[in-house]
Specification:
Elements lengths: L10 H9 L16 E5 L3 E4 L2 E5 L2 H13 L5 E5 L3 H15 L4 E5 L5 H5 L9 E5 L2 H4 L6 E6 L2 E8 L4 E8 L2 H8 L8 E5 L3 H6 L14 H9 L16 H13 L11 H7 L5 H13 L2 H11 L12 H8 L8 H16 L4 H10 L4 H20 L12 H10 L22 H10 L5 E4 L5 E2 L5 E4 L12 E9 L3 E8 L5 H4 L5 E10 L4 E10 L2 E10 L5 H14 L8 H20 L5
Parallel strand pairs: 1-10, 4-6, 4-7, 5-6, 7-10, 9-14, 13-15
Antiparallel strand pairs: 2-3, 8-9, 11-12, 11-14, 12-13, 14-15, 16-17, 17-18
Helix pairs in contact: 2-3, 8-9, 8-10, 10-11, 11-12, 11-18, 12-14, 12-16
């Protein structure tokens, strides 16, 4: 039997797909819930068919809290789109209701200690401000009321711009009903929606399936490995668009994982065996070849999880100060290697409780650090099964780590003021590591321009995210683990690159342009200026080269016309000296006779 459970999928589509003509049975289990009263309080009120003034979101939330406070004591769950909106709403609510309600934020980047506060009962009723993490991932206990903003940040990949966006969008009806159901668990509840009933009814019943919103490179890679045929002809439950499939193939070609006919290369089959993004797999296998496979193993495991660093609202400055211990000003990637090295030096001889305490002290998420290590071990085992050997990772002593902790200073290569007795991280091969990373990030590079804005392939514009260690002193060329569109287009987790690396790493993608072919007397050959373009981005501009192999016929013409005829050639052969002397005598004779036809 195959049992599919979900509160927000379209059951009819699954029933039709798996059941064929008979349809697979659909069983609805509603659970033990109490009635929920729905109230619509749109921020934009209609006045006689005309729009009236629109309320601010926080004003709407405050009005809704006042309304619910008249209904009796009870905890309130407010659904908002993101961390910034939660922080702003929390500030407003504390100004209005600090003496009556306890205000608790809830989003994925919060520390475990802060998230666990929602499970501890208090003396006052609570207002929990949450993203849709409280809609699907966990249940907030004791909720009697819900205030729904009706929006969420939805992840979408745009195959045209090659951007992963996290933009605020209206949620579907199924998600809105799921949110409303959160206040019917312990008693009768009330849900206030900050949008109109007409708006609700006009929304789609379900959110687009993720296969329509994500990058398909991994899907296409696995389909090729399993020999499932042409992805465009495969009977998906929801077939992705043709442009999504083409973009997936384009990415795999950039990685050299597929041939032009769509079949997997040897590298592609190796990538399909790794449980990570194909781009990360390509980085890892390249790192093995360059002798930095262990460092890349640590990094791809890190890039496959959420950032383990935490920045609690009330301790942001302290968290930044602690995280600065691992700073490498040229590379966020090397900073993560510093973090890994430091943490593992403690993990060898420390208990779970000691590591939890260490994580709290340095504002690290213990569960994510453990997830990082578990994924590292899993991928390490797969590399061994593939008979790939990797270099040993540099080790440090716990005493050395203690020295570093006590001094409280960064000892990265970029820090020139380090104390001699301070622990120094291993000297990582930064260039080799960055070159291997670049193999999987060829579409996520950029060259700096005005206003610290970078231009990448296909004229994509972005800025370095303020949380990056490279933000204050942005380099001329940069690569990023991801480029995400939120309020702006930001590059996250960045590192410095040398554009000269691209000539060999991206040789299969680079296009060459030639300009100003001419005869060079000093070089004694036809020359021209060469520009190398990676998806329109000039990685090498106006480099003078020998033009003979590029255009032999034109080069021969230049040699005859400008070299021989014009005398712009240095030849010591007797025949050439004799011919030059004859030409010189003829020119003198023409001058004396004032004729030009001799």
């Amino acid at each position: 039997k195959l049992i599919i459970t979900s509160a927000t999928i379209d059951p009819e589509k699954f029933s039709n797909y798996f059941g064929g003509a008979k349809k697979a049975p659909i069983i609805e289990v509603s659970g033990r819930t109490y009635p929920v009263e729905m109230r619509y309080r749109p921020l934009l009120e209609m006045d006689g068919g005309k729009d009236s003034d629109e309320k601010d979101l926080n004003e709407g939330i405050i009005d809704a809290v006042r309304e619910l406070s008249q209904e009796g004591r009870g905890d309130i769950l407010v659904f908002l789109s993101g961390e910034r909106e939660i922080r702003e709403a929390a500030d407003e609510l504390r100004r209005e209701f600090a003496s009556y309600y306890e205000i608790l934020p809830l989003f994925s980047r919060l520390s475990q200690a802060e998230q666990s506060r929602i499970f501890r009962p208090g003396n006052r009723p609570r207002i929990v401000l949450s993203t849709n993490v409280a809609e699907t991932s966990l249940t907030v206990p004791g909720i009697k009321y819900v205030i729904d903003s009706g929006v969420a940040r939805i992840s979408r990949y745009n195959p045209t711009s090659r951007l992963q966006s996290l933009l605020v969008e209206p949620i579907a009806r199924a998600s809105a009903d799921q949110r409303a159901g959160r206040c019917g668990r312990v008693s009768e509840g009330i849900c206030i929606r900050l949008f109109s009933e007409e708006d609700f009814e006009s929304r789609p019943e379900f959110l687009d399936p993720e296969i329509l919103r994500t990058h398909l490179a991994s899907v296409i890679l696995q389909m090729g490995h399993l020999r499932l045929g042409d992805p465009e002809a495969f009977p998906f439950i929801e077939a992705p668009e043709t442009r999504q499939i083409r973009e997936g193939f384009r990415t795999l070609r950039e990685l050299r994982a597929v041939r032009h006919n769509g079949t997997l290369t040897r590298l592609g089959n190796d990538l399909a065996r790794l449980p990570i993004d194909p781009r990360f797999g390509a980085m890892l296998l390249d790192g093995v070849k360059r002798g930095v496979g262990h460092e890349l193993l640590v990094l791809v495991a890190m890039m496959s999880i959420q950032d383990p660093r935490e920045r609690p609202l009330e301790f942001q400055q302290q968290a930044d100060e602690k995280h600065r211990l691992f700073k490498e000003s040229h590379s966020d990637f090397i900073s993560f290697l510093n973090l890994w090295t430091w943490y593992q030096s403690y993990a060898v001889n420390s208990s779970q409780s000691q590591l939890r305490k260490l994580c709290r002290q340095y504002f690290l998420n213990f569960m994510r650090m453990r997830e990082w290590y578990d994924l590292y071990r899993q991928i390490e085992g797969l590399l061994k099964s593939m008979k790939l050997s990797i270099n040993p990772f540099p080790t440090v002593t716990k005493e050395a780590s203690k020295n570093r902790r006590d001094t409280g200073k960064s000892n990265s290569k970029s820090n020139k003021d380090s104390d001699n007795d301070e622990f120094r991280f291993p000297s990582f091969s930064e260039d080799l590591i960055h070159q291997s990373l670049l193999v999987g990030l060829l579409d996520q590079i950029g060259m700096i321009g005005d206003d610290k804005t970078y231009t990448g392939p296909n004229n994509r514009k972005f800025k370095i995210f303020p949380g990056s260690f490279l933000f204050k002193k942005p380099p001329k060329w940069v690569m990023a683990m991801e480029i995400v569109e939120t309020s702006q287009v930001y590059a996250r987790t960045c590192g410095v690159i040398d554009p000269a690396w691209l000539e060999s790493i991206a040789d299969h993608l680079i296009k060459k342009q030639y300009s100003e072919p001419h005869w060079s007397k000093t070089q004694g050959q036809a020359a021209a200026y060469e520009t190398l373009l990676l998806c329109g981005l000039p990685v090498v501009a106006n480099r003078q080269i020998s033009y003979g192999k590029v255009a032999p016929e034109l080069s021969r013409e230049l040699m005859i016309r400008e070299g021989l005829v014009e005398g712009e050639i240095n030849i010591r052969a007797p025949f050439y000296r004799k011919n030059s002397k004859v030409i010189e005598n003829v020119e003198l004779m023409e001058e004396k006779t004032r004729r030009r036809d001799i």
